[in-house]
Write a structure and sequence with these properties.
The chain starts with a helix and ends with a helix. The radius of gyration is 28 Å and the shape is globular. It has three domains: 4-31 and 532-719, Endonuclease, Chain A (2-Layer Sandwich), CATH 3.30.870.10; 39-335, polyphosphate kinase like; 346-529, 2-Layer Sandwich (Endonuclease, Chain A). The strands form four sheets. Strands 14, 18, 19, 20, 21, 23, 24, 25, 26 and 27 form a ten-stranded mixed sheet that branches. Strands 10, 11, 12, 13, 15, 16, 17 and 22 form an eight-stranded mixed sheet that branches. Strand 15 (465-473) and strand 16 (476-484) form a beta hairpin. It contains 20 helices and 27 strands.
Length: 721
């Protein structure tokens, strides 16, 4: 069993010998013990694609998974592939499988990405589009339209589309135009009727217009045409006097990996804004073209964009299926998941007289663990901050903000609190990838309202999800805390699965007070009682917890490790789990995305099981559970098992103590790891196999549906008391 006081004092250096001896054991582990992280990420996106291919899912949800796959792959190229190429070009070390060169690793990634993009296109044309058509949502070509439909579309084109189109010629007087990243374009070859000379033009498909144009609607049946198809069939109106010879769609992905030397800049915001401008002009890393593009046009694009043949992706179907996100507006509930209305957490539900719940009174009574989106974000986190902003007894609010929206009620509550004269500190992470520009905007909005806005520590992203409210009660101050696994974002809280712990525990309050003071100052405090904080001692704390389970197993005591994360790639953590497995510790990993651990290898990881669950909600919470000789230690927080989370971010895990909460988290893990629950299983080769049907072909238990049922059951049980 772990000595609580040793753990609570911040895991000082006095026990480093434990880790030195463990590190020596690494030399005995096989050199090929890690799966490639990039290929593992592509395997994750394949799991998303498998949901789109599943005929048992509602058709509009299948289309949504195709859009998610496309969006995910865009980000993979913009960040992961771009970063890998940058490291190769600059000569920096590139993590690859042993015996694999960086160039070979990039070739492997390209080959797998090509395969998946072809499978993605096939899933749309052969599976999802026909399923939608059968349900009355039909996507057709311009060539299949009747003349009266073409006439109506001609009017729509000239009224709604033509005015915003900007054809750009390429000739001696007009250089090849800048092609923005992720834009959908038409490459057009035309012939001058007077000179007979062939010319090239580029036309950008306007991103502000609906990607799919409604042609007709008859009751529940609707027909749609892709916007680029509509434009392509009216090119003559854009080039009067010219003969349109050919046209093809293409799309470019650019390097959007950002590098800011924070210790060399005097103004982080200005440096970030300059980097955002540079990112728009990042070098191309992927060119998607339609399968029928002629060689002349393709060679021109390759030459002008300075891209390699390996970076060209020929797609047998429409490009940029992110446009399928727009189908969420189609009003066909029977073609979607059954709606789920989040319930208010039991502790925060109104009393018998239906008066508004007193959030602070509920938290004083006992810790509250809230599970989103099954339990409402609006009636818990939002209500907590809203009540704090309006309560005259509240003196101060401190909060970290990583991703949110400028119109968020969270932002408004902080503004209201500041305008009411309270002390308000917002630690804004302006370096949150792809949200940088938005974060700068609303950070300035907070500053104008009188909120103290700080941007964290140089060289570290502040990724932890923390809120602290200081309230005066009977002449003394009391701290109310929220530690979460997900962002303070009302929009994503309806789609992301996360946990949040509310507590008035004095020790947690002191920990958060110290942590916020250090984040707005110059250094990270080394010693916390209820928190494990990165970058100084989260890694060491987890290694100590894993080592304790290993020693308990060797001593013949019960032992078990359970970890739920988005990504599992940190080599030191994985090696510690291998050693625990070798000692006989059952290790259960529940991972959504990347996983570099190899389960089921004899003599190394036969006691390690890895599962993945994907569904209507994005599994986002992080849970770390250790048997600890019967005194269960369970932590929740924001950290994944990645180098950046453990070494280059401020992260925080909080230990859950309430027995009912421990039972709830344990039951969730039991359900996730059960052979009767639908999930993907990882083997030692890196292959994920989907297990969603029993031997009779019946659907296995859907964890997310079952969790909805369990939450509603708890609510009904309370109502009948």
């Amino acid at each position: 069993m772990i000595d609580h006081e040793v753990l609570d004092t911040g895991l000082g250096d006095e026990d480093d010998d434990d880790f030195d001896s463990a590190a020596a054991d690494d030399e005995l582990l096989p050199t090929d013990r890690f799966l490639d992280r990039e290929l593992s990420w592509l395997a994750f996106n394949q799991r998303v694609l498998e949901l789109a291919e599943d005929p048992r899912l509602p058709p509009l949800e299948r289309a949504n998974f195709l859009a998610i796959f496309a969006s995910n792959l865009d980000e993979f190229f913009m960040v992961r592939v771009a970063g890998l190429k940058r490291r190769i070009v600059t000569g920096l070390a590139v993590p690859t499988n042993v015996g694999t060169s960086p160039e070979d690793a990039l070739a492997d990634i390209s080959a797998e990405a090509h395969r998946l993009q072809l499978r993605h296109a096939d899933a749309w044309s052969r599976l999802v589009a026909p399923a939608l058509a059968e349900a009355g949502v039909d996507f057709v070509s311009f060539a299949s339209l009747e003349q009266d439909e073409r006439n109506r579309l001609y009017e729509y084109f000239h009224e709604q589309v033509f005015p915003v189109l900007m054809p750009l010629a390429v000739d001696p007087a007009h250089p090849f135009p800048y092609i923005s990243g992720l834009s959908l374009n038409l490459a057009i070859r035309i012939r001058n009727a007077r000179t007979g000379r062939q010319e090239f033009a580029r036309l950008k498909v306007p991103p502000m217009l609906p990607r799919f144009v409604e042609i007709s609607r008859d009751g529940e049946r609707a027909r749609y045409l892709a916007l680029e198809d509509l434009i392509a069939n009216h090119l003559g109106d854009l080039f009067p006097g010219m003969e349109v010879l050919d046209h093809h769609a293409f799309r470019l992905t650019r390097n959007e990996d950002m590098v800011i030397e924070e210790d060399e800049t005097e103004n982080l915001i200005q440096a970030l804004e300059a980097e955002l401008m540079r990112r728009r002009f990042g070098p191309p890393i992927r060119l998607e073209v339609t399968e029928d593009m002629d060689e002349l046009t393709l060679k021109l694009l390759i030459s002008e964009l300075d891209i390699t043949e390996q970076e060209v992706y020929r797609i047998p179907g429409p490009l940029d299926l992110r446009g399928l996100f727009g189908l969420s507006r189609v009003n066909r509930p029977e073609l979607k998941y059954k709606p789920h209305l989040p319930t208010t957490a039991l502790a925060f539900q109104p009393g018998d007289n239906n008066e508004r719940s007193d959030i602070f009174s509920a938290i004083r009574s006992a810790d509250v663990l809230v599970h989103h989106p099954y339990e409402s974000f609006a009636t818990s986190v939002q209500a907590f901050l809203d009540q704090a902003a309006k309560d005259p007894q509240v003196l101060a609010i401190k909060q970290t903000l990583y991703r949110t929206s400028g119109d968020s009620p969270i932002i408004q509550s902080l503004i209201d609190a500041a305008e009411a004269g309270k002390q308000v500190l917002a630690l804004v992470e302006v370096k949150a990838r792809f949200d940088e520009a938005a974060n700068i905007v609303w950070a300035r909005k907070l500053e104008k309202a009188g909120v103290h806005v700080v941007y964290g520590l140089v060289g570290l992203k502040t990724h932890c999800k923390l809120a602290l409210v200081i309230r005066e009660e009977e002449g003394s101050l009391r701290s109310y805390c929220h530690i979460g696994t997900g962002n303070y974002n009302p929009k994503t809280s309806r789609m992301y699965e996360d946990f949040g712990l509310f507590t008035a525990d004095e020790q947690v309050g002191r920990d958060l007070t110290r942590l916020f003071n250090e984040l707005s100052g110059y250094a990270i405090e080394k010693k916390f009682k209820r928190l494990l904080v990165a970058p100084l001692h989260l890694r060491k704390g987890l290694l100590r917890l894993i080592e304790s389970e290993r020693r308990n197993a060797l001593a013949g005591k019960p032992a078990r490790i359970r970890i739920k994360v988005n990504s599992m790639v940190d080599e030191q953590i994985i090696d510690a789990l291998y050693r625990a497995s070798q000692a006989g510790v059952p290790v259960e990993i529940w991972v959504r995305g990347i996983c570099s651990i190899k389960p089921g290898v004899p003599g190394l990881s036969e006691n390690i099981t890895v599962r993945s669950i994907l569904g209507r909600y994005l599994e986002h919470s992080r849970i770390f559970a250790f048997h600890n000789d019967g005194d269960e230690h369970i932590y929740i927080g924001s950290a994944d098992m990645m180098h950046r989370n453990l070494d280059r971010r401020v992260e925080a895990l909080v230990r859950v103590r309430d027995q009912a909460h421990l039972a709830q988290l344990t039951a969730l893990f039991d359900l996730a790891m059960s052979d009767t629950t639908s999930s993907w299983w990882l083997d030692h080769t890196g292959t994920w196999a989907r297990h969603h049907l029993d031997e009779h072909g019946n659907q296995l238990v859907d964890l997310q549906d079952q969790t909805m049922t369990d939450v509603q059951s708890r609510r009904r049980a309370r109502a009948t008391r």
